[in-house]
Amino acid sequence: MPDIFTVGERCPLGCLAVILVKRTTDQKVFAWCGTCGLAWAEPAAETWQLGDHGAAELHAAIIANGSMIELASWKDIKKAGLEHIARPAEPFEDWPEYLIRRYNDTYGLQSG
Ligand SMILES: [Zn+2]
Question: In which domain, by residue range, is 77 found?
């Protein structure tokens, strides 16, 4: 199972953890709450306090811009300069991968 990295305690709306994902087209790393769908293009600029949505996009598709998404690796996170906010998720958690698959099935079909 690949490593999963999260930011903050949880989504500002109070959902589950916000995971770090990347666009497969250009490796751009962004934060995504797969539960409510909010996404943040610049995770390091956010406070990650409950109730503070910051510069959230209503849907990850706005940031993904037609690309498939996948879990950001530690290498991706370091390259994006986000290692100071990224935290490894519990290894037994597999829901992020399920949500990413579901996202790609729904929105990533055009990118091949
Ligand atoms: Zn959420």
Answer: 5-111
